[in-house]
């Protein structure tokens, strides 16, 4: 039996479920196929982000930060507390409750918008046919005028430290520790490694992060990255750059990791109780495409698409982590909306120049647009304004003064080229920068905009003023 739809979306993560909902809103008969199931065998929606990524990690980040603040900083506010203990199982239960609420919410949105949920594992056949195999092995076929592939990504494993689901885990396993490890190793100082490392560090673990690259946060503006490295060191995160992991020896209760420091052939060792492997993610495209599907991938498993996420087969699209660009939920969601609207014959596009990036450590690190290093390399002339949170009244009142805001503008036109923040509410401040840049604002536009006082947002205002040496609350550079 073959069911016919206008649109079949494969995957119910942030890219897929958003695409399916938007397609249904536009009057298209839409189905969404999802293979992930819960303990009761029911389809689990939301993908990596809602279930084992963005949302649960933020729940633990916030819980651990509150614990850390209670331990370390309440007395500065004049608040006296007795002995403070962490209840990890209760913390995990809260995290799971949040996840369930959100994933159940996606189910409700499917029903409200008339999206047909199909449970099973999909395979794209020739002629825009989608074969679905359910949990019992039964096979059915969906036929569609348009197919959207949104199967997401999965953690990369590395041979020197094979996962065992207990002592050596990936990012998913790191969200399920039932107690705080005494010695925790993290391989990879990227977004995931820093976030997970900071969670368990705040809760009391002695955390060492091993990073193969010799530059910290290579994709970020390096002035911001250097500030981040300084702050994390103060927080007792031991980040070792130029440390390439080459092997490991697992004992009954611990694991010894072997690594080489850059420029040295002498093997170093360090022993941990738990080890998190956070070296990146790869697209989930294994066994997804029939040989005659006509859809092409590169050697790493990414599906080839154009700027509108069209594959080499007319009527077949791919979005989110399975295509080029950063593996970010918001990027995938916007691609999902774009594709749904294109299918409905509307004009739509994604501005790939303005995809914001965020690291949800404390302080947060966020940026959008060009870094100073990129502009130097391209030879573009630019000007810079910075403002430290130490000079922000709101940040001082909140006892949250680490970091700065940096605004980069074109030297000739004054158009904002980049906004980079490390500090309180960095993600929210950068989003203000995204809005300004989407409307081609100049630094002067931001400088002439009234910001309410006292807010941490004033730091963005002052950084924009500082671009031309007009900052009010810090001395301007001559």
From TrEMBL:
<dbReference type="InterPro" id="IPR006258">
    <property type="entry name" value="Lipoamide_DH"/>
</dbReference>
<comment type="similarity">
    <text>Belongs to the class-I pyridine nucleotide-disulfide oxidoreductase family.</text>
</comment>
<dbReference type="Pfam" id="PF07992">
    <property type="entry name" value="Pyr_redox_2"/>
</dbReference>
<dbReference type="GO" id="GO:0004148">
    <property type="term" value="F:dihydrolipoyl dehydrogenase (NADH) activity"/>
</dbReference>
<dbReference type="InterPro" id="IPR023753">
    <property type="entry name" value="FAD/NAD-binding_dom"/>
</dbReference>
<feature type="domain" description="Pyridine nucleotide-disulphide oxidoreductase dimerisation">
    <location>
        <begin position="355"/>
        <end position="464"/>
    </location>
</feature>
<dbReference type="InterPro" id="IPR012999">
    <property type="entry name" value="Pyr_OxRdtase_I_AS"/>
</dbReference>
<dbReference type="InterPro" id="IPR050151">
    <property type="entry name" value="Class-I_Pyr_Nuc-Dis_Oxidored"/>
</dbReference>
<keyword id="KW-0285">Flavoprotein</keyword>
<dbReference type="InterPro" id="IPR001100">
    <property type="entry name" value="Pyr_nuc-diS_OxRdtase"/>
</dbReference>
<dbReference type="InterPro" id="IPR004099">
    <property type="entry name" value="Pyr_nucl-diS_OxRdtase_dimer"/>
</dbReference>
<keyword id="KW-0963">Cytoplasm</keyword>
<keyword id="KW-0560">Oxidoreductase</keyword>
<keyword id="KW-0676">Redox-active center</keyword>
<feature type="domain" description="FAD/NAD(P)-binding">
    <location>
        <begin position="5"/>
        <end position="336"/>
    </location>
</feature>
<dbReference type="InterPro" id="IPR016156">
    <property type="entry name" value="FAD/NAD-linked_Rdtase_dimer_sf"/>
</dbReference>
<keyword id="KW-0520">NAD</keyword>
<keyword id="KW-0274">FAD</keyword>
<dbReference type="InterPro" id="IPR036188">
    <property type="entry name" value="FAD/NAD-bd_sf"/>
</dbReference>
<dbReference type="Pfam" id="PF02852">
    <property type="entry name" value="Pyr_redox_dim"/>
</dbReference>
<keyword id="KW-1015">Disulfide bond</keyword>
<protein>
    <recommendedName>
        <fullName>Dihydrolipoyl dehydrogenase</fullName>
        <ecNumber>1.8.1.4</ecNumber>
    </recommendedName>
</protein>
